[in-house]
Design brief:
350 residues, alpha/beta, eight-stranded parallel barrel, two-stranded antiparallel ribbon, 14 helices, globular, binds flavin mononucleotide
């Protein structure tokens, strides 16, 4: 309905210019140190970043994670970022398709296949909307945009901070199990900035989930976004919880330990460059994921600005591989690295 679309535009305004990445939050990636190799004995062009995802082959292990849809402005963001992903051989996700599930007139803002015919494309819906839609309804959303897979997002922290948000989180695993059975490795389960930890990840994998985006703490905080929209006591609780979550570095390292190498893991949440992408890959991610930086670049300078931002990331990622003497991510993972400070404490507990 109208309120879903209006709320989405308020979210976009806040994310474009608001203080949605609380400075005191951290991914803890600053505590991961890759080790310099003074004699790389390789050329930049020897770096092979290609990786399989959703039945396709990416040229680099990067997912532009789901953000938007439902309005004209959102449609422009989707098309620009999908086109970029197509050009550079990356994966792309649209934002929550709730708006088009409620009103099919909004479907056009999620349609990117005309500009991104071969991109690895993810649809997106919230866990609790998926309960209402059922397996067939979720499949219709995926098929309507010609997606290769469907992202199911978890956002209990955001919902509790949203005055009109959900207050009952029962029945989630049952829906995940049904969707995993129906979608197989076309399903991805993601958080939205509070992180998926090893216990939840293990349970998801037991139920058949094959792709997980940990989306940890340290980047965009949806609790903060809702705090900025809320008033009174709700805003105070939002302020208190805007640092809540599992830091991305802790989430990805602990989840990889918990789930075995065949599960495809994405690490998003505050990953902000090529070097940080290399760090999450070293910690066990198959793909790095990013939302806010590319959205902001697109909002500020359209497609050219977003492409420039992306090139900086891809160049930095290649550079990190060369400077650790790694031809691919498999070699990067075998290199020694230093884990220090608070991240060590997190990993001792998880
Ligand atoms: N995640 C979803 O699963 N569905 C959404 O609809 C969605 N909307 C978002 C809108 C914006 C403007 C942003 C910045 C993020 C959104 N997210 C959504 C969350 C991102 O996919 C990602 O998990 C999170 O922002 C952490 O990554 P980041 O720190 O790089 O932004």
């Amino acid at each position: 309905d109208e309120t879903t679309a209006r709320r989405k535009d308020a979210h976009l305004d806040l994310c474009a210019t608001g203080d949605v990445e609380p400075a005191q939050n951290s991914t803890l990636l600053e505590h991961v140190h890759l080790i310099h190799c003074a004699m790389p004995e390789m050329a930049v062009e020897d770096v092979d970043l290609s990786t399989p995802f959703l039945g396709k082959r990416l040229q680099a292990p990067l997912l532009l994670t789901g953000m938007t849809g439902g309005t004209e402005r959102a449609g422009a963001v989707n098309r620009d970022l999908a086109l970029l992903a197509e050009r550079h051989g990356l994966a792309f996700g649209v934002g929550s398709q709730r708006a088009m599930a409620e009103d099919s007139a909004r479907a056009a803002s999620y349609a990117v296949r005309d500009v991104a015919p071969t991109v690895a494309l993810l649809g997106n819906i919230g866990l609790y909307q998926a309960i209402g839609l059922g397996v067939d309804g979720v499949r219709r959303l995926m098929d309507a945009i010609g997606a290769d897979g469907m992202a199911l997002h978890l956002n209990a922290g955001q919902e509790l901070t949203q005055p009109e948000g959900d207050r009952d989180f029962r029945g989630g695993y049952r829906v995940v199990e049904e969707l995993a059975r129906a979608f197989g490795d076309r399903l991805l389960v993601k958080e939205t900035g509070c992180g998926i930890g090893p216990d939840v990840a293990r349970r998801l994998v037991e139920l058949g989930v094959r792709n997980v985006d940990v989306s940890g703490l340290g980047g965009t905080s949806w609790v903060r976004v809702e705090q900025l929209r809320a008033a009174g006591p709700q805003a105070q609780v939002g302020a208190e919880f805007s640092g809540w979550g599992i830091p991305t570095a802790a989430a990805i390292a602990s989840v990889r330990k918990a789930v075995g190498p065949e599960v495809r893991l994405v690490a998003s949440g505050g990953v902000r460059g090529g070097l940080e992408s290399a760090k999450v890959l070293a910690l066990g991610a198959d793909l790095a994921g990013m939302a806010l930086p590319l959205f902001r670049a697109q909002q500020q300078g359209g497609l050219p600005a977003a492409e420039e931002a992306l090139k900086v990331i891809l160049t930095g990622l290649r550079q990190a591989l060369v400077l650790t003497g790694s031809r691919d991510v498999a070699q990067l993972r075998q290199r020694p690295r230093v884990v220090s400070g608070a991240l060590k404490d997190w990993l001792a507990a998880l």
